[in-house]
Description:
Helix content is 35%, strand content 15%.
Amino acid sequence: MSIEKLAIFGxxxxxxxxxxxxxxxxxxxxxxxxxxxxxxxxxxxxxxKVKQFLADFNAIYNLQYSVxxxxxxxxxxxxxxxxxxxxxxxxxxxxxxxxxxxxxxxxQNAIPVFADLDPHTYNMDPISIxxxxxxxxxxxxxxxxxxxxxxxDRIMDIARRYKLKVIEDCAQSYLTAYKGRYVxxxxxxxxxxxxxxxxxxxxxxxxxTVNSGEQADYxxxxxxxxxxxxxxxxxxxxxxxxLAPNYRMTELQGAVGIAQLKKLHWICGQRERYGExxxxxxxxxxxxxxxxxxxxxxxxxxxxLMLIKEEELTCTRDAFSQALExxxxxxxxxxxxxxxxxxxxxxxxxxxxxxxxxxxxxxITYSEGLCPVAEEILRTSIYLNISEFYTExxxxxxxAGIRKVALYYQNI
Length: 412
Ligand SMILES: *Cc1c(COP(=O)(O)O)cnc(C)c1O
């Protein structure tokens, strides 16, 4: 095996051509937006665009009911509110996620409790979830990280045994299948984001699915996204009995969403293929572990997170990351810098300034070591971007770059 001189030491970089790019928005979106404007209203309840967007989404997911929101964060908050999560309840979730997973929990004055992760799928470990269940536990907020499904059979089994609500955070996992069924349809609610960095974008926006198929649950969910006003049967009831935010989606976002959904299968198909190609291409390399797809699952790769096994290499994760960068392969050490509970909000327990509420209800604290596997994943992983617009050549050069650096630094 020939060892090539790394670009970081003056060798020639593997990748010299720019990565493929493409237009996410085109005439399809423009046509829909123009039609929205011509309605002379941009209010979801009076116009047809948000309604059409949801109808198209429901058709893809084979659902009867879903609700549009102003963001993915809002979708999760709405699901929690509709599920009845309230002051002092505990919600078990993942320590490796976007802050948007946690915001709704804290605005309901409920308490996030973190379960540890599987070391290779990076999703919540059912054994750890079960070990975190206590008297106040009301829900499991499952994060399907980076397009890879969580172990839903075991999670749903735990939820049934302990009578817990299940909310799925699918912000990174469009068209992610688990045992032949899309994630977002297993729990009580599935939450999606259409912010500008997800598989599809409406600028900002989100969707909550109502999986019971019950009209009463749909009404509760719909109302929680709209100040708890009930806009049904031609009537509006403003006689509210508890607090809910205004998280409405506008017709402009709905219009863009209609056109974006038409591209969803292509986008997810490209990403799935590229993710699988990288995994096949780096198989068996020293010092590298590809992400493991959950058994029975299929990933639509919102990003690609591989692990560096430092004991098999003569370099650190950070040195590997820098060498790969110099080969022309952009990457980042880890996904988020630290487990979310290491943020000052959790360390100082200040969801609300000048207060320790709701943490002081139970006196919970969040210390380093709380989820050791999650911490190790963040300490040893390398993040690679995946785009549906990358070319086959981009993907083979990414593989060649990883291969070159791994072989150079292998510990023999
Ligand atoms: C993006 C994201 C969110 C939040 O979505 P926004 O639309 O940005 O509010 C929540 N959870 C996860 C896992 C995400 O990736």
